[in-house]
């Protein structure tokens, strides 16, 4: 696969790992946060932790849009879809996320019309081919995905499709990073920046992290070599005691971002004054809602929304894991009450949530290492 | 939020400037080019696809550049060590990057 | 899946037919299966399916549920050994590139018997038909089944038909029961698997599952892919001929994919299955679809492949026999059995990284994150 395989070349990976070893100070413990859930997933999928020296710790950040979605919002979306002749359309990522009365798939088993779509455009098409139903698209995602939803709403308007609406849960990444850095129990050395979000917002929005917080950022792609090269970049900066934004993912990320995408977002969306993030609490100006000019395609305007707040069980330590303060297996519920089969927190449901990733890819390796290390 | 894959534009539609058929090693999907309307791709160009929309063009030049940089990683260091081995005074000047 | 039941149990005396009514009169153990309702996940072949079988069916139906669950049961009737299997076919759409439900039904039955080390001889089939099903559709499926049965060398000895109301079956459901003759010189037993054994795969994975996913049309993807449905018996037979004594275990990785089959083996024998990622054969289009949709090819269903665990001294001969047989050119040794990680499947990459591959809970879902 072009633009994929080259960035998985074993010899070059070996070289890059050597360089990482050379650059890292053995007397120092590095804490590097990778913000994006896609990076969390890639790190586990490619087994990158096996390649890093033990004094480099990769901390998983809050960039998992499923993980930070409060359960009340899922309940709201499902409540709308309970109405007769409403089709609940969402990405596969949402299908097993538990609401108070079950996940979308469980609701499907009980008779709700639930469809998996790959694209918001497919949800719009579903509305156009089912004129006697209403299609509600449950939209999630950061700035990577929001422009596509925006464009779809613009198309719905221009094509005059009225049996379609969007339940908008889009969130923005910068406030989440700010919340992490403002957190008193947080100690981080550098960031691996979200490469695909940055194709939309560009690299400028991260400049305050370097200038004010004095931490290096490497905006990173998702192949093994991308992530490893990003680590090289931040290590070089830390060694040279500098802090700046570097664009590792140059082949795809324009420094200024994607103006057409930003325009589409500005046309359709505005910032909510505040929004609740599961595990992080209320954050102001951190989420998008649909503008009044598109009210007709806003599920929250078209339908009655219960708007109930659902809090996580006290024992669940999702917030601390989300902020990187705790590792997944350090949460009291991990692997016992909370597993991918019976998730309690959303970090266990989403395949890029740190708990699920850790559970699926990692924890038995931990046991294996431990059992080999201990004498029989 | 981040699953986006490189694909090649294999067909454009004169009646639908905002659409293109994109190929990912033999899998094809009609993709919306609305987010690239300021810089529409041509047939043969590579784009990054996310949820059925093209998010960005992929620069082959930048990709090759990146690989070039990675391939010489460590070579400057190796050159350094060799030079130091000869006991030259100004080993610093031998560094290339 | 059928339990490899203990042929010494009371209901398997000579002249007695196998019947669940012949269960002994002891009180069944309390059920471990606690889910309040059945979900789609319970039929996906992954963890939820396993929970249902082990936690509800096995304690109530199978006399000795201490035996590991296999693809077919080998029964002994006073010295005559017979292999028996049953399977049901519920697929949408009925017809897809490379085949249809009828072919799946025949090949699936033959394959379950083949990987238990038996040659399929005959099968019976039940059709549950939805009222309103066009006859032309039924005829096409029945023809396909007849052709597949002839190709596979299995006789269809009889059957049953039921018709249910419109909306109660997706056009048709097919259930089969197949019987066969165990092959001499091979004994499938997960307990015989040892560290050092090699893991063989008969060919490229993921073709069937991705073909079906694309054929449903919901994702708007096209690819030049076909289901891999075929009888794997000729390949199994070729392998048994040269490596019979060395074959420890075989399975056809259908729903849940290679990852599920190997996880089941890892659980049953307590050893680790360590795979080499680059060795796993896959067609480009399967790879492309999986990358695009965020799916792991190891979780995708196959209908014309099998896995075999073979003792190291027989592995090369086994692989060679497969490669030389028609349809076996892509067979590979994809990994080996090791002590660690015990009970799990590990995939190693060409550059030193590794990851654990678990069974999924339910069907693999496309993702965008």
In short, what is this structure?
The complex is a heterotrimer of chains A (376), B (97) and C (369). Chain B contains two helices and five strands; from the N terminus they run E-E-E-E-E-H-H.
Proportion of residues in extended strands of chain C? 15-25%
> From the structure provided, what is the oligomeric state, counting identical versus distinct chains?
heterotrimer
Query: Which class of secondary structure composition applies to the elements of chain B?
Result: alpha+beta
Helix content of chain C: 25-40%
What separation lies between the terminal Cα atoms of chain B? 36 Å
Biggest sheet strand order of chain B reads 3-2-1-4-5
User: What gyration radius of chain C follows from the Cα positions, in whole Å?
Assistant: 20 Å
Structural class assignment of chain C: alpha+beta
Tell me what the structure shows:
The complex is a heterotrimer of chains A (376), B (97) and C (369). Chain A has helices at residues 10-23, 37-45, 71-81, 104-109, 120-129, 146-158, 173-182, 195-201, 207-211, 224-239, 259-268, 299-302, 318-322, 354-361, 363-373, and strands at 30-36, 56-63, 86-90, 114-116, 134-141, 164-170, 190-194, 217-220, 245-247, 269-271, 274-277, 281-284, 288-290. Chain A is an alpha/beta fold and 376 residues long. Chain A folds into 3 domains: 5-63 and 183-247, HypD, alpha/beta domain 1 (Rossmann fold, 3-Layer(aba) Sandwich), CATH 3.40.50; 71-173 and 282-302, HypD, alpha/beta domain 2 (Rossmann fold); 318-366, no CATH class. Chain B is α+β, with helices and mostly antiparallel strands. Chain B has helices at residues 60-71, 75-85, and strands at residues 5-13, 16-24, 27-32, 46-50, 53-57. In chain B, strands 3-2-1-4-5 form a 5-stranded antiparallel β-sheet, with no helix packed on it. In chain B, a hairpin with a 2-residue loop joins strand 2 (16-24) and strand 3 (27-32). Chain B is elongated, with a radius of gyration of 22 Å. The two termini of chain B are 36 Å apart. The relative contact order of chain B is 0.15. Chain C folds into 2 domains: 68-181, 60s Ribosomal Protein L30, Chain: A (2-Layer Sandwich), CATH 3.30.1330; 190-356, Alpha-Beta Complex (Phosphoribosyl-aminoimidazole Synthetase, Chain A, domain 2). Helix content of chain C is 28%, strand content 25%. Chain C contains 8 helices and 17 strands. In chain C, strands 12-14-10-15-13-16-17 form a 7-stranded mixed β-sheet. A 5-stranded mixed β-sheet of chain C has the order 3-4-9-7-8, covered by helices on one side. In chain C, a hairpin with a 2-residue loop joins strand 3 (73-77) and strand 4 (80-89). The longest helix of chain C is centred in the middle third of the chain and has 18 residues, at 135-152. Residues 1-25 of chain C have low confidence and may be disordered. The chains are: A alpha/beta (376), B alpha+beta (97), C alpha+beta (369). Strand 3 of chain B pairs antiparallel with strand 11 of chain C.
């Amino acid at each position: 696969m072009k633009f994929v395989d080259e960035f998985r070349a074993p010899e070059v990976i070996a070289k890059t790992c050597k360089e990482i070893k050379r650059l890292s100070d053995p007397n120092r413990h590095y804490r590097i946060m990778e913000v994006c859930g896609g990076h969390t997933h890639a790190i586990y999928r490619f087994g990158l932790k096996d390649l890093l020296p033990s004094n480099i710790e990769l901390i998983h950040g809050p960039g998992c849009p499923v993980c930070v979605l409060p359960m009340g919002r899922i309940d709201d979306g499902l409540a709308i879809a309970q109405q007769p002749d409403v089709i609940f359309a969402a990405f596969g990522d949402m299908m097993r996320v538990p609401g108070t009365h079950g996940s979308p798939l469980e609701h499907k088993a009980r008779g709700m019309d639930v469809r998996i779509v790959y694209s918001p455009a497919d949800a719009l098409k579903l509305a156009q081919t089912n004129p006697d139903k209403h299609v509600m698209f449950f939209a999630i995602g950061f700035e990577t995905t929001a422009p596509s939803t925006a464009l779809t709403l613009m198309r719905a308007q221009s094509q005059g499709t009225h049996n379609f609406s969007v339940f908008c849960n889009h969130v923005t990444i910068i406030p989440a990073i700010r919340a992490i850095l403002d957190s008193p129990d947080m100690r981080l050395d550098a960031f691996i920046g979200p490469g695909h979000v940055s194709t939309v917002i560009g690299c400028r929005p991260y400049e305050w992290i370097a200038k004010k917080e004095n931490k290096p950022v490497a905006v990173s792609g998702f192949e093994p070599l991308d992530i490893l090269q990003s680590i090289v970049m931040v290590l070089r900066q830390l060694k040279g005691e500098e802090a700046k934004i570097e664009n590792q993912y140059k082949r795809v990320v324009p420094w200024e971002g994607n103006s057409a995408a930003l325009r589409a977002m500005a046309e359709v969306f505005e910032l909510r004054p505040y929004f609740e993030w599961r595990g992080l609490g209320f954050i102001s100006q951190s989420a998008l809602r649909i503008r009044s000019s598109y009210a007709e395609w806003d599920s929250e305007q078209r339908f009655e929304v219960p708007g109930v707040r659902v809090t996580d069980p006290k024992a669940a330590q999702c917030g601390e894991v989300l902020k990187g303060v705790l590792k997944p297996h350090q949460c009291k519920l991990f692997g016992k009450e909370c597993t991918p089969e019976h998730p309690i927190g959303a970090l266990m449901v989403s395949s890029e949530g740190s708990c699920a990733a850790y559970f699926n890819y990692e924890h038995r390796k931990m046991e294996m290492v431990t059992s080999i290390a201990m004498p029989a | 939020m981040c699953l986006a894959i490189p694909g090649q534009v294999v067909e454009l539609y004169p009646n639908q400037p905002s659409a293109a058929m994109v190929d990912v090693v033999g899998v094809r999907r009609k993709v919306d080019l609305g987010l690239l309307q300021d810089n529409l791709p041509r047939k043969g160009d590579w784009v990054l696809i996310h949820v059925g929309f093209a998010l960005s063009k992929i620069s082959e030049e930048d990709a090759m550049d990146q690989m070039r940089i990675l391939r010489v990683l460590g070579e400057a260091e190796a050159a350094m060590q060799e030079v130091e081995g000869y006991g030259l005074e100004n080993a610093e000047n031998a560094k290339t990057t | 899946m059928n339990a490899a039941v203990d042929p010494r149990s009371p209901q398997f005396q000579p002249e007695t037919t196998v019947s669940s009514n012949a269960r002994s009169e002891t009180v069944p153990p309390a059920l471990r299966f606690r889910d309040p309702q059945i979900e789609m996940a319970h039929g996906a072949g992954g963890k939820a399916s396993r929970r249902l079988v082990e936690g509800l069916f096995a304690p109530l139906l199978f006399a000795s549920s201490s035996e590991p669950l296999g693809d077919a049961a080998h029964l002994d009737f006073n010295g005559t050994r017979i292999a028996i299997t049953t399977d049901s076919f519920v697929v949408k759409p009925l017809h897809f590139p490379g085949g249809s439900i009828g072919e799946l039904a025949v090949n699936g039955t033959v394959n379950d018997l083949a990987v238990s080390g038996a040659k399929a001889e005959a099968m019976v089939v039940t059709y549950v038909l939805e009222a309103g099903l066009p006859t032309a559709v039924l005829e096409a499926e029945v023809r396909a089944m007849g052709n597949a049965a002839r190709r596979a060398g299995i006789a269809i000895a009889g059957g049953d038909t039921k018709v249910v109301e419109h909306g109660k079956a997706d056009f048709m459901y097919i259930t089969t029961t197949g019987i066969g003759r165990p092959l001499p010189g091979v004994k499938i037993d997960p307990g015989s698997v040892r560290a050092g054994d090699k893991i063989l795969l008969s060919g490229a994975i993921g073709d069937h599952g991705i073909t079906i996913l694309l054929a449903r049309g919901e994702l708007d993807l096209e690819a030049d892919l076909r289901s891999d449905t075929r009888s794997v018996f000729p390949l199994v037979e070729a392998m048994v001929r040269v490596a019979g004594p060395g074959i420890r275990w075989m399975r056809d990785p259908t729903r849940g994919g290679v990852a599920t089959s190997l996880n089941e083996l890892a659980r049953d024998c307590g050893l680790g299955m360590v795979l080499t990622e680059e060795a796993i054969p896959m067609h480009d289009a399967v790879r492309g679809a999986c990358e695009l949709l965020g799916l792991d090819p190891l979780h995708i269903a196959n209908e014309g492949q099998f896995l075999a665990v073979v003792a190291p001294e027989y592995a090369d001969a086994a692989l060679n026999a497969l490669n030389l047989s028609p349809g076996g050119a892509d067979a590979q040794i994809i990994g080996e059995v090791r002590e660690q990680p015990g009970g799990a499947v590990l995939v190693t990459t060409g550059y030193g990284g590794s990851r654990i591959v678990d069974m999924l809970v339910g069907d693999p879902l496309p993702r965008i994150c």
